[in-house]
Fold:
Amino acid sequence: MSRPSPFRVGFVTGATPDKWARAWRERRREPLDLVPLLESEQEHGVRDGDLDMALVRLPVDRDNLHCIGLYAEVPVVIAGAEHFVAVADTVALADLADEQLVRPHASGWRPDAEQLDWPPMSEKDAIETVAAGTGIVIVPMSIARLHQRKDIVQRPVTDLDPTQIALIWLLDRDAEDTQAFVGVVRGRSANSSR
Structure:
């Protein structure tokens, strides 16, 4: 008897698929492959059929996709440990108006200060740049926790909307296994129906 093909679910950095993967593996015979994704490529694997579903950070182009919002992520500013934000509990965008942003924020917010032309960089590279004492970066808290270091601080930004993690899949990919995974992320028991 041949082993069933794996069900493939992509996930962006900071997304947390582990509890859903455990529930899937307890309930299903077919294996589950979790595939790390870059945020810049989060839709591609689903659209080209390489992935069955993906945990993505919104916004995405929802054309021809199912999309279920799962949870919100608090935006945080990351700065060097000696930066003025280290003494605050939270920060507003106005507090950051004169700062150098080393990586664009998804919201499009930019400080008032003249910005250097930074090359594109990953979250990890941006945090390393900030740790070296240059500028700030704003990322979801999950990313900040993933790259936590002793030479940086993170503080919630009170006037930025949270980012959203969502589950996406193609409209025409609505098979039983897809609905089973939707059930897992929605907390349905193994015996409940849709």
In short: The mean pLDDT is 91. Strands lie at 7-12, 32-37, 53-57, 65-73, 75-80, 137-140, 152-156, 163-170. The domain at 7-72+163-185 is CATH 3.40.190.10 (D-Maltodextrin-Binding Protein; domain 2). The longest strand covers residues 65-73.
